[in-house]
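Figure caption, in words: inputs first, then the predicted bound structure.
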Amino acid sequence: MSKIYQDILDKKARREKMFAVLLDPEKCVDKLLYNVLKQLKYHHPDLIFIGGSGRCCNTEDLIKELNGIPVPKVLFPGDASQFSPKADALLFLSLISGRNLDYLIGQHVKSAIEIKKSAVEIIPTGYILIDGGTDSSVKRVSKTEPIGADDIATACSTAVAGELLGMKMIYLEAGSGAKNPVSSEMITAVAAELSIPMIVGGGIKTTKQLKTAFDAGADLVVVGNLFEKETERIGEFVQFVERYKLK
Ligand code: 1GP
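Bound structure (SN-glycerol-1-phosphate present):
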């Protein structure tokens, strides 16, 4: 079963852009959770990503809280401990821009049997960290160096290597809270090399930046950090994407 991935492919084929709200289960509790649920009740992104870089076990609690929201819940885990069989899909991420074996294949080996036994849809995804001008938590936790913000050739060859290895999507990540999102030049160049869908995230704080990423060739854009501070803007972003889709 690959319902969610098939839906992503269908939307890409129709050139319909997608938007995901990222929720960190460690932070999305109490008042933030209340505000997030209030927004998501009326404003539906294409997907809800759930994940963070800390080791935490609230993933299932958050999925339960999101139960009534008619949007697929997709795990975007920092490590194997964040897997939950209650999610709809899992981005099975391999940090292919880095050379830390644990994040290339180690965490995957730890969780593979449990994941395979579950009914969760698995989407193998090549995860590429690009320098976003800040020390991102992905860089800190994975102890890997990002690809330089201007090193388009390395970003392209890394993404193509991921596609050739059989990955189903590529995620260009500037890091949560990045000062600089991935540049439109890099997005356009990587998109031109790929046949599979491309996700872009990290440091997007305005609908103008979202539009730039879409126009440059991102199929799916993810925003997380902004909504931890300005949760009411989920509605603004969802409505913007709805209008963009009608163009
Ligand atoms: C982080 O790409 C996602 O992994 C989203 O980034 O939190 O900066 O929106 P932000």
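The longest helix spans residues 101-117.
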